[in-house]
Amino acid sequence: MSKDKIILGIDPGTTIMGFGIIKVVNKKMEFIQLNELNLKKYDDHYLKLKLIFERTVELIDTHHPDEIAIEAPFFGKNVQSMLKLGRAQGVAMAAGLSREIPITEYSPKKIKMAITGNGNASKEQVAKMLQTLLSLKTLPKNFDATDGLAAAVCHFFNAGRITVGKNYSGWSAFVKQNENRVKK
């Protein structure tokens, strides 16, 4: 008997956090939602982090995902932007961990590879493939929402595989796997 499950995918960001939610029924994906949290109007970085945490908790409490897939930060423009991205990812992860939901991280390349078969695919190519896979009528203007949805679909495609990225099932698992990052 196969258990239905809901997967929340998150593309963390301090300007825009994209997210997508799918339901897996009888080993088939069903689209639930895709959207973004727009943080452009806020100047205070800590307020943005608070809003990311609150929105993630709200999504969890509304949709009751069984698992969370999150895009891992990549080194892009500079160290400062990567630090901010890492913080955004961290508070989204903390929201999931506070509700004891297992979290898996995927690199942007792994997500693109899972969706399109090409780890260097453009955001447009990923969005178009998601539109086809999930029979979406329209696509959002920004690709942050489709990037979040792509993380969820990537997780679906990787279900049952042993090496899918970093996996955290709660605070104790996170601490155990990151002892070098935790002060004693």
Describe this structure in words.
- The chain is of the alpha/beta class and 184 residues long.
- It has a single domain (5-177), classed as Ribonuclease H-like superfamily/Ribonuclease H (Nucleotidyltransferase, domain 5), CATH 3.30.420.10.
- 44% of the residues lie in helices and 21% in strands.
- It is built from six helices and six strands.
- The chain has helices at 45-63, 79-98, 108-116, 123-134, 144-157, 171-177, and strands at 5-11, 16-25, 28-38, 67-71, 103-106, 167-168.
- Helix 1 (45-63) packs parallel to helix 2 (79-98) and helix 4 crosses helix 5.
- The mean pLDDT is 88.
How do the helices and strands line up, and which of them pair or pack?
Layout: E1 5-11, E2 16-25, E3 28-38, H1 45-63, E4 67-71, H2 79-98, E5 103-106, H3 108-116, H4 123-134, H5 144-157, E6 167-168, H6 171-177
Parallel strand pairs: 1-4, 4-5
Antiparallel strand pairs: 1-2, 2-3, 5-6
Summed up:
The protein is of the alpha/beta class. It has a single domain (5-177), classed as 2-Layer Sandwich (Nucleotidyltransferase, domain 5), CATH 3.30.420.
Descriptive labels:
single chain, 184 residues, alpha/beta, Nucleotidyltransferase, domain 5, 6-stranded mixed beta sheet, 6 strands
